[in-house]
Design brief:
The protein has helices at about 15-30, 35-45, 85-90, 110-125, 130-135, 135-145, 150-165, 170-175, 190-200, 205-210, 210-220, 230-235, 260-270, 285-305, 320-330, 430-445, 450-455, 480-490; strands at about 5, 10-15, 55-65, 70-75, 145, 185, 235-240, 240-245, 250-255, 345-355, 360-365, 415, 420-425, 460, 475, 495, 505-510, 525, 535-540, 540-545, 550-560, 565. It contains 18 helices and 22 strands. The chain has a domain at about 15-240 and about 345-390. Helix 18 links the parallel strand 15 (about 475) and strand 16 (about 495). By secondary structure, the protein is α+β, with helices and mostly antiparallel strands.
Length: about 575
Amino acid sequence: MTQSIFGMRGIAVAPHSLAAESAVAVLREGGNALEAMIAAAATIAVVYPHMNSIGGDGFWVINGPNNRPGGIDASGRSAQAASRDWYASRGITSSIPFRGGVAALTVAGTISGWGAAQQLSTQCLNGKLPLSRLLSDAIYFAQNGIAVTQSQEACTALKRSELEPHSGFASTFLPQGMVPAKASIFKQPKLADTLALIAKEGCDTFYRGKLAKMLAAELAEVGSPLTLADLNAHQAKLVDPLHTTVAPGRLFNMVPPSQGLLSLLILGIMDRIHGWDQDPEGAAFIHTQVEATKLAFSIRDQYLTDPAFMSVAPQDLLTRERIDALAAKLDTTRAAPWGQKTSPGDTIWMGAIDQAGIAVSFIQSIYHEFGSGVVLPTSGVNWQNRGCSFSLNPGHINTLEPGKKPFHTLNPALAQRADGGVMVYGAMGGDGQPQTQATIFNRVTRFGDHPQLAIERPRWLLGRTWGQSSDSLKLESRFSANTIDQLRALGHDVETIGAWDEGVGHAGDQLPGRGQLPAPGEAAGGLRPHARHIVIGIDTQAAVVKGANQRVAHMGVRAGGHQRSGFA
């Protein structure tokens, strides 16, 4: 049973309540969705430190004025010194290590995304809030501390032995040499000073100012190939998102090196397959989506890399003819072989909608838990290990080259629905992201699920994501034994995982209505908790009041606890 909660000035969803509250506070002050997301992005980098940091990358998909979609690619390139020969000279020839200074080989782009978003806000949306205001919560929490979550405690304990030897990890994430306990206070004073400097001097200082010089010296100290010249050369890029059309509407996702292409292919293939009268938790539907996922992976792994190195324009891979041909290969009676090695990874997804209807789908990541494990000694920045997705095999499509963007699992999703509404949605979890996105989208738009139900229904995952080692088809134990047995009979290598398992990803969605409030039971957003001890779920919606110039937010909440969405 859900209940409705209403607000007047917008809505935000995040995997930590403090990030959502930062966004909502901005919305209440008259800020727009871009400003709200900058605030949320800064806060989440502090309060959710095992999953993301300002030392990572970010992507934005935005539904702007007049329903015009746009995007921001805030991902960084590899160092100019980062060649296969550079690694070979250090005895590294098979694969780039996941941890340590040699894993910190790509520029951290997310701060440039905040700067680009603020510029768009000012120039296009009459944004007026200064960066100092947008970063104020993050600075406060870094300086004064946050209450440690169960997720942070568990993740730190799990990764301690692997990460403790690396520069700055222990002094930052193991205060007094101990794993911070749930509900204890965790402070990051060096990061607070860095955020304060960004607030004072602007986002560009990370790449071309006082902070850039500090970061370059620190990176050299820990053995990274990155230099000041690499930082100086970085710019966020405004892009047109990839798109495709399905029966429920027009879908948008991020361009390469993001795997947004994969997410669109899955939904495009499924659009060609009938079966929307099936049980959304039944074997037939799950089989169809899993097989669509396999076909989409085959295209991704054949073509997707830094777009400067691609042999085909990414949008050309989404033509009707190409998707029709893929769909024709899908066998509804038997599982195709699966030999892919999917990528693990972590991230956070967040969404925001303001009172003008501007919608943002946002994702920010340092790749694996704690990224490279390196925390820079003066700035307190935990640097990403995204460059580990490069191959050292010269024949691989994602082979390492100097100044090349690494493959990204990150992909924020947005849909312009056929009924005139907009849906922003996303998930964490490496190669699990596009699968969870497809699941949530199909449940809401195809099966008519209340978004809270779409979030709460049991999930599945083909392959592995963060914390997983096997590449089986994993189903939560909440699925019926009949569904599991039927999938095995279809030829799937099925593995059951625990109920509410964190490995199937955080997920969220927001659906602005158009013209009127939804009927009871039709709230339109959701956020699944990242661990079973957290609240079961929260729904969110922004809807337009018919005939008025104001918007409201509508939410259904199941169970109390750690709130993860906010209303202004």
